[in-house]
Amino acid sequence: MICFFSEKVVYFPEIIWFGKEMKSIENMVLSRIYGRGKGFVFSSADFIDEFRDNNIDKALSELTKQGKIRRIIRGLYDYPKYSELLQQPLSPDIEQIAQALARKFRWRIEPSGDTALNLLKLSTQVPGRYIYHSDGPNRSYEIGNTTLEFKKTVLKEIGFKYSISGLIVAALKSLGKNHIDENVITTLQNQIDPKMCSKILKDTKTVTGWIYDAIKQICKDER
User: Fold this and answer.
1) Could you tell me how far CA 215 lies from the centroid of its own chain?
2) Residue 221 pLDDT
3) 134, part of any domain
4) Which terminus of the chain has fewer CB atoms gathered within 10 Å of its CB, N or C?
């Protein structure tokens, strides 16, 4: 390292350059986080294609200190949604957390029927545990007062491009063909972004016939 001395000031060009580089990486990482919108849950693995591991970890740590992102558990963060009514950040989204962990560890996952029903507001029970089937190891995480559990099992409904597709299929399977009524259809319509309907229809076209018929009813006004 070369230092330039004057009577009052000592300059360290390499330190200054490194600080600017890290600030630039922070800004780039933050831009990508903001681009995914509030509620996005992520880990350093989501940025590994663009930045070095140690740079990402430092950037995420600094952004957490600045209050721009929130640490959920070790190695996992979110860009929290904010409630104007409650005047505080909302709890992190369990489905987003599950998907972020799946990306981080390269697991394939699918929600259990009860988990899908809860996430899609088709169950009135207040869950304390969310269960996902996985081709990875058995793992359990405590998220506040909620347990997120992954159970190693044979995956039957997998390969959907969009997580919402897997949730809908799991929920409909859990309910069963004879329990798909107008109330279920309406509730699911209210949980889905209309812009996603064409993608969901394409994503689920190979599922069991009666399930796909129900999905077509859910998306009938948006195809």
Assistant:
1) 23
2) 63
3) no
4) N
Task: Put residue 37 in one of left, alpha, beta given phi > 0 → left and psi -120 to 50 → alpha.
Answer: left
pLDDT of residue 39: 95
Judge whether 140 and 149 are in contact, CB under 8 Å.
yes
Q: Which of 151, 125, 157 is nearest to 139 (CA)?
A: 151
Considering the domain boundaries, does residue 146 fall inside one? no
CB contact at 8 A, 151 and 107 = no
Closest CA to 146 of 133, 161, 160, 127: 127
- The pLDDT score that the predictor gives to residue 17 is 40
Write down the pTM of the prediction: 0.82
* Type of residue numbered 127: P
Tell me the C-alpha distance between 76 and 70, whole Å.
Answer: 9
- Total of domains in the chain: 2
pLDDT tens figures, 39-95? 999 999 999 888 777 789 999 999 999 999 999 999 999 999 999 988 899 999 999
Residues 102 and 29 in one domain: no
The C-alpha atoms of residue 200 and residue 182 are separated, in whole angstroms, by 19
Predicted pLDDT at 10:
45
CA atoms within 13 A on the CB side of 127: 21
